[in-house]
Amino acid sequence: MEQYIIKGGKALQGEVSIGGAKNAALGILSAAIMTDETVTVENLPDISDINVMLQAIEEIGAKVDRINEHSVKINGSKINSMSIDYEFIRKIRASYYLLGALLGKYKKAQVALPGGCNIGSRPIDQHIKGFEALGASVKIEHGMIQAEAKELKGTHIYLDIASVGATINIMMAACLADGVTIIENSAKEPHVVDVANFLNSMGASIKGAGTDVIRIKGVKSLTGSEYAIIPDQIEAGTFMFAAAATKGDVLIKNVIPKHLEAITAKLIEIGATVEEYDDAVRVTTSSKLGHTNIKTLPYPGFPTDMQPQMAATLVTSEGTSIVTETMFENRLKYVDELARMGANIKVEGNSAIIVGVSGLTGAIVSAPDLRAGAALVIAGLVAEGFTIVEQVEYIERGYEHFEQKMQGLGATMAKIDIEDDKAVQKFKLKVS
Ligand SMILES: CC(=O)N[C@H]1[C@@H](OP(=O)(O)OP(=O)(O)OC[C@H]2O[C@@H](n3ccc(=O)[nH]c3=O)[C@H](O)[C@@H]2O)O[C@H](CO)[C@@H](O)[C@@H]1O
Ligand SMILES: C=C(OP(=O)(O)O)C(=O)O
């Protein structure tokens, strides 16, 4: 087990390059097994969720050839099992995409109920509603979701909630259904569009991804493809907030600025400067940041996956800010950890009420989930003295070489083994 140790108080400076989007990559790797031909996927993030997904598809018979840490070739012609083992699945949320992929291709799938971070109850009723509307029978038994159909038939589906997962899952299954499927109130996130573009590159016929109505004309089969995943909006946003919170000057490269608009708008509102280039953004902050209110919303609103990082930035901004989480009820678990570092922050209902303080002090804190963990790293970079962030395995679900990228920006940060009782001492000696 490992933890991060950070000596805070330094402004981040320099350039950082953003990796491929986790949430697009997970959908794309699942969709890759829907053809018997070989698919090459590039710009894969080197994170633990991706390794789990690759292991899971290999386990059911897909041939997975790692070309390098960011590219893979997948061939799904020898899939020999429709059942995904609990050991793999319980680790990640996006395992549910294998339901849509297998159901579409083989009309049968059995996948354990998904895991991932404990950020709320996360039902999958909309996924099930979609599969049933396509003609599948779905039941949950012994912790497994079982879906089966004689044939899948195109249909009209209205989602009660614009769910990212349900939209992608239904879209995948509908690609190989007979006839046209229309998904209304579909999610519009960039990763939904990226999975649709990938499926289209395999010969699917999907129109309207990125709007709230998606039209899918079923095709008989899908073909091989070569595809590069879009940059990760959330990784980019995290570095943008880290730059602002530490009063730094950082060029964040390999991004799609359009995907960052909600984040950019909030940074400008609190007084940071954001310069946009074709595929980069530069964030600079020279004076004290101000306060704001945010509410998490589906794209193009402010992303729930950026909410904790925004709160960590606001704790040392001037004035009172209110951060409201509308999607997942357990996404404010970082509040007590920030308070340990001297933040004036409390939870009221589904909001965090933040009164800005002049500074934070380093402490031992524990990452309750992926994005909350990233938020604690931002706080550690700002704080005076040493911060230890425990449970980095959550952070590594979604951030590639996080400590190395931060070091590249001048952060005094390292990953150490908790078994090594001299590691903290050694780090402190080295950096003091
Ligand atoms: C792997 C992946 O891409 N994860 C992302 C995906 O999660 P995920 O796909 O799980 O999120 P959804 O968009 O489905 O969830 C949005 C809201 O709808 C609710 N809901 C969802 C499905 C359903 O069948 N019934 C239901 O009630 C959820 O509880 C939540 O309140 O989108 C979330 C919202 O942008 C992000 O935080 C996650 O990082
Ligand atoms: C909540 C997240 O991921 P997942 O849905 O995979 O748990 C996230 O990426 O912030």
TrEMBL record:
Where do the annotations place UDP-N-acetyl-alpha-D-glucosamine binding? R93, R122, P123, I124, D125, Q126, D305, M327
> EC number(s)?
2.5.1.7
Q: Which InterPro entries match?
A: Enolpyruvate_Tfrase_dom, Enolpyruvate_Tfrase_sf, MurA_subfamily, RNA3'P_cycl/enolpyr_Trfase_a/b, UDP_GlcNAc_COvinyl_MurA
Where in the cell is the protein located? Cytoplasm
Enzyme active site? C117 (proton donor)
Record GO terms (molecular function): UDP-N-acetylglucosamine 1-carboxyvinyltransferase activity
Per the record, the major location class is: cytoplasm
One GO biological process from the UniProt record?
Answer: UDP-N-acetylgalactosamine biosynthetic process
Question: What is the designated name of this protein?
Answer: UDP-N-acetylglucosamine 1-carboxyvinyltransferase
Q: Give the similarity note.
A: Belongs to the EPSP synthase family. MurA subfamily.
NCBIfam families documented for this protein: murA, PRK09369.1, PRK12830.1
Q: Does the record bear Glycoprotein in its keywords? A: no
- Which source organism? Anaerocolumna sedimenticola
Positions bound to phosphoenolpyruvate: K22, N23
Domain Enolpyruvate transferase as annotated: residue spans: 7-406
Question: Catalysed reaction per UniProt?
Answer: phosphoenolpyruvate + UDP-N-acetyl-alpha-D-glucosamine = UDP-N-acetyl-3-O-(1-carboxyvinyl)-alpha-D-glucosamine + phosphate
